[in-house]
Design brief:
71 residues; mainly alpha; two-stranded antiparallel sheet
């Protein structure tokens, strides 16, 4: 992960306290969407949650997807 991208965590720390999203829960949502071949929905979720641009959100989802394929 680079310093500019949000980093998923398995801790119970809040990823975005204003939205009450738990980081583990958030990453699980991304995993679930990717598992169902809904990558666009996963990117939209990242954009809506973090306020990132399209490129950054896609890179974030791509990193999670690469991690999934290594597991």
């Amino acid at each position: 992960w680079d310093d500019n991208s949000p980093q998923p965590s398995t801790s119970t720390n809040q990823l975005d306290a204003s939205q009450g999203i738990d980081s583990e829960e958030f990453v699980q949502k991304i995993y679930h969407l990717l598992y169902k071949n809904q990558k666009i929905e996963a990117v939209k979720l990242v954009i809506d949650t973090y306020g990132l641009g399209l490129r950054e959100a896609k890179e974030y989802v791509d990193k999670i997807e690469r991690f999934m394929s290594q597991s």
